[in-house]
Write a structure and sequence with these properties.
The chain is an alpha+beta fold and about 90 residues long.
């Protein structure tokens, strides 16, 4: 059986009190290629099928950082999401 790891995070204020078992950390920042796509199974699947060839086709290289899915309430209302790929 193949098991995928998946981290979930939420942006909080610095004084936010964590009352559940969670880790608090920071992203290191840097440069990201941002992709806006429909938040559907088909669109996300197509994204993952094509992302690495798209990165290569655009002469980019991926940094050793997490790929991020980003949602805002406005994006969710419009059935959209962003995927941020860390690049060098």
């Amino acid at each position: 059986m193949l098991t995928a790891l998946y981290d979930v995070c939420v942006v909080v204020n610095k004084d936010f009190n964590v009352e559940i078992p969670a880790r608090v950390g920071e992203f290191s920042g840097g440069k990201y290629a941002v992709f806006l796509l429909d938040h559907t199974k088909e669109a996300v699947s197509e994204f993952w099928s094509n992302i690495f060839s798209e990165i290569e086709r655009n002469n980019l290289s991926i940094r050793e950082q997490p790929i991020i899915e980003r949602y805002t309430s406005q994006m969710i209302d419009n059935h959209l999401c962003e995927i941020l790929v860390p690049i060098q």
